[in-house]
Design goal:
Length: 327
Amino acid sequence: MDTYMITVSFFILLVGLCFGSFLNVVVLRAFSGESISYPASKCPVCQKPLYWWHNIPLLSYILLRGKCYFCKTHISWQYPLVEAITAILFLLAFLKIGMSMYLIFIWAVIFMSLVLAVTDIKEHVVFLMHCLIFGLIGLIYHAGATGIMALNGTEMTWLQNPLSNSILGVLLGGLIMLVYFGVSYVMAGGRMAMGDGDIYIAMALGACFGWEKIWIIIIMGFLIQALITGVIFEYRLFQEKNYKLFGGILAVAILALGYWLSNKAGLFEENALYLLGYTIALIGTAIYVCRQLFGKVLGSKTEGLAVPFGPALVIAGFVMIFFPFAA
């Protein structure tokens, strides 16, 4: 990496830190109902306005040793963490895409995705206004791209242009999540297995990525959510000393990994009996675990694991940005 790239990368990190700091303001003011521009930043505990040097991204947290300058209340780790993550993602996007209008669009996608993820993780809340702004960013960008293509004389059908792709992405994302919402509601015994905010997030992502990618993002989101929920669920089973179900889920995971590794190594092609035995063991264990799980979920009077789905969708969107093989 030459001196120019190092200098530009450092500048983009600073820009990312500033946007990360602003992102924290957007999240905090969304919960408080205040404007993002007024009043000036203040300590949420003692309510004293902050000095200018209290608002330097990342550096202020270090200088203040993670405590309010006035009342010495501990400052949430959310602030430096969000600033650092935003800066890193901004830099990675630049290194992958290069300086262009598309990079500005991707930065906007990253920013709004993180806003939705943070509010969902923090309070399990998705604000409709954030989703609307996110969706409009995608629609406006793709409308502009369609206009430029038309001015350049590019031949397009009504289905083969960025704007229609974006609009269909909104519809498909919302439809898939709406169906999932209904199915999960029935399977959970008439209880809310997900919030309607997840539908809005999928629609906003559909506006940004289009219908050809949104279904892949949703599938990846399901897989990521299953992994996160599985780890948390296993931990809770261990805490409850439900070793039978804990061991069953762990066995399914190990058998599934072994199945994949055996198939990659070509062991199944060499021994049909091994394939049959392994398949029976995997399916049998999975059926046992599913029966135990349904009994536990349906027999419980609680809402189950409160793990928001929005962050999983956001992570899947980031995968789509940074790993083109997923496209």
